[in-house]
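Write out the 3D structure for:
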Amino acid sequence: MKIAYLSTFYPYRGGIAQFNAALFRAFERLGNEVRAFNFTRQYPDFIFPGSTQFVTEKDYADKIPNLRVLDTVNPVSYIKTAKKIKEFSPELVVSKFWLPFFGPSLGKVLKSTKRYASNVSIIDNAIPHEKRPLDRVLSKYYFNQNHKFITMSKSVNNDLLTLIPKAESYIHPHPLYNHFPKKIDKISARKKLGLTNQDKVLLFFGFIRDYKGLDVLLESLVSMPDYKLIIAGEIYGDFKKYDDIIQKHNLEKQIVKMVRYIDDDEVPLLFSAADVAMLTYKSATQSGILGIAYHYNLPVIATNTGGMKEMIEPYNTGIVIESANQKLIQEACFKFFKSDDNYFAKIQDFKEIASWDNLAKFIIKKIK
């Protein structure tokens, strides 16, 4: 099958590009002819909240061959992209959706391709966490250019159906990221971070945004003096409010703070040093951090928001709490470190289900 994959690829960095690269390779392994169509400009610099949109020499990026042709803010490029895809004559056009901002550019291209190919959208967020005017209008424009949809949680699937009630949508577990370097020895990892083997180590990893509940997690540490928390990720906004909590409660000695973009070669250090990953989000749809944690055989403590529960409870790979609440977080941590559950064996079972090849097969099966 000829597959056009319209989304973000190398040289862009981040979870979306990593997801696309892994699925692209899975389509290839199944014997398909796949071509990637990439952005020339993904976000204008003035609206991008991070330090850079592009990979660095420390990132383990899969350099997927791609045609950089789509500029999100240049309508002329929409026409050019549609033309380039048509020249390829694909039977299937796959795109990925995570923000309404991409609705006009992706939607315009897909409006053209839907005439001769099957358009399948993989949706991270049907309704964004941080809502803005016109979100629904932009999202619905994009959704209406697709024939079928793949979501990775019931929550996202339900959000989609509130916008497009007759959408033909299917749910598949989020595959595990497997491009990161291997796990390293826990003792040596902790030594590099100034931690001891006796410490109870929690990990908060990924972009730091209001909805992820880091403030509640920090407040929870006040009654857990023998616990340590690694905070590793780039801040979207201002870290001051978190620093204020740390200083107010004298938590400095309990915190390992790496508030910046984490290069891929640093990821094994953090996940190898931790006992459990903390996803104490106030709201969510699903999280790629779960996939990274499972890649490193690291159990999780997560809130029952979005599709998190679906990736944890049925497989017994961690603990789910009802909300981002200090008492619930504390109780979950105490329970985790007293438990004799073999979370690690259960994670291995989940890995068999949530593979990139299975997702690729699932998509192809659903369009036939």
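The longest strand covers residues 33-41.
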